[in-house]
Specification:
The chain is α/β, with parallel strands linked by helices. It has eleven helices and nine strands. Helix 2 links the parallel strand 1 and strand 2. The two termini are 25 Å apart.
């Protein structure tokens, strides 16, 4: 498995007292304070690649880094998994049952069905829109003219703690509810599936796809967004093509290739296959044709 870029005192009789009512604002302040304190504590980080090292550098010191084949154990709190998707099952297997609720997943692709099947559907997930060119480099935030506030987003029990460390490291991160996170996750999935497929067809990097094949990738983005939104039962907010093209410009040097197929393009292809098997039209005909063109199916 390759881990990459990439939780005797004596009894004293007492009479319980009713708790004092606490104002909602006080609760929120208490929660925020708790998240700030937790973000200053060391984490367990699985994987010592570019992203893992960057997260360690942002931290307060004392993070435990777990590498290939090691049992996943460390301080309480987030266990941030910075590995390839195909290594996830091994990571889960090496994590004690009582700590699996603390696993934080930052991988690209459609993770939700896999997580649900393992009882991890409500775990923290992070959509990473920052890049680390090489190990040891400072991360570059994926802020764009369309989204100057940044696109990185987190959901789940450790979301605010994750966001706080990223903010300390000079990066943006929004904390979202489940529905908004699902929409954002779909957009990120569409981005990587569309740009990788068009790039593979034209042997072009991400920037060249955006610059020279913008109409083609825009049409594919629209097709995949529509099919994905219907499949997940979530609304589209609009502006997806402009938003995802703008992000492509910020990571123009990225190479393209159709890989980790079951987690990315394969999710859309399964939708197509199911529709065709049921005698319905393919909702992603452009995508299916591209996959055939590049030899992915």
């Amino acid at each position: 498995m390759l881990l990459a870029n990439k939780a005797s005192a004596s009894a004293v009789a007492f009479k319980p007292r009713a708790p004092k009512p606490v104002a909602r604002g006080a609760n929120m302040a208490c929660n925020a304070t708790g998240a700030n304190l937790a973000s200053q504590q060391p984490w367990t980080i699985v994987g010592s690649g570019r992203i893992g090292e960057a997260l360690v550098a942002m931290g307060p010191g004392g993070d435990v880094v777990v590498t290939r084949g090691m049992k996943v154990e460390g301080p309480g709190g987030p266990i941030v998994v910075c590995t390839r998707n195909d290594d996830l099952q091994t990571v889960v297997d090496l994590t004690p049952q009582e700590r699996r609720k603390d696993l934080v997943f930052i991988q690209n692709g459609m993770l939700q069905p896999w997580l649900d099947a393992r009882g991890l559907g409500e775990n923290t997930q992070v959509l990473v829109y920052f890049a680390v060119a090489k190990k040891g480099d400072a991360p570059t935030d994926g802020k764009t003219d369309v989204n100057p506030e940044g696109l990185t987003a987190a959901y789940g029990p450790h979301a605010q703690v994750i966001a706080n460390r990223l903010h300390k490291g000079g990066l943006s991160c929004k904390v979202l509810g489940k529905r908004d996170f699902t929409v954002a996750m779909l957009e990120k999935l569409v981005w990587i599936s569309a740009f990788m497929a068009v790039g593979a067809k034209h042997k072009a990097n991400v920037g060249e796809v955006e610059k020279h094949h913008g109409e083609e990738v825009g049409a594919l983005i629209a097709e995949l967004c529509a099919a994905g939104a219907t499949e997940l039962g979530v609304p589209l907010h609009g502006g997806e093509v402009a938003r995802l093209k703008a992000y492509a410009s910020s990571v123009a040097h990225f190479p393209t290739a159709v890989k980790e197929f079951p987690w990315r393009n394969g999710w859309f292809y399964q939708i197509s296959q199911r529709h065709l098997a049921e005698g319905r039209r393919d909702p992603c005909p452009m995508h299916t044709a591209l996959l055939k063109k590049v030899g992915a199916i």
